Amino acid sequence: xxxxxxxxxxxxxxxxxxxxxxxxxxxxxxxxxxxxxxxxxxxxxxxxxxxxxxxxxxxxxxxxxxxxxxxxxxxxxxxxxxxxxxxxxxxxxxxxxxxxxxxxxxxxxxxxxxxxxxxxxxxxxxxxxxxxxxxxxxxxxxxxxxxxxxxxxxxxxxxxxxxxxxxxxxxxxxxxxxxxxxxxxxxxxxxxxxxxxxxxxxxxxxxxxxxxxxxxxxxxxxxxxxxxxxxxxxxxxxxxxxx
Length: 243
What we know:
Glucose Permease (Domain IIA); 20% helix; 243 residues; alpha+beta; 10-stranded antiparallel beta sheet; single chain
């Protein structure tokens, strides 16, 4: 035992003897607010209690939404605002009147692919499935009236106005190469097929309207093949297996 340690022990014993014993100081400190400690909190009216989110959570949500918006991804709401379509081309006679009198050249498909979703009152367009990054062409000549984003499901989309009151919309685009006011032809590239908006796979959602009324694109466009059917596999018999 060192001399310094002996000196400390002796000093401690002397202090204990002179003080008549050690006394522990009460170190309790109340950490509760006074309104709770004094029983005032139970008396507060419930309507005065304000609920809220932490500021960090609010700012994180805002920053995340802005970041996803620039990246082209948007929230999918459970019940998007559906638009019930009024079909202009209801009969074969109306279709026959629309096609020859309205377009100066035959319409084309935006790109190769197959029909994955048909036109209906709750789906005012068709879906043409294809590979990711496939170039998208306008169905005929026109002028770009919109090239923007939609948070309710369309994602990146382009609108093209055509002759005689027709307009076409191309949605779920990955990249957009045109701007508003630009003149385009059927050889122009509007952008690329992507996965933006409400989509389960790479495809182009195509809408066609005439004077603001939705038209079934299948009545105007060239024939689009349906989804490919699975090939029937025939089990081959092993040469060693008895006949």
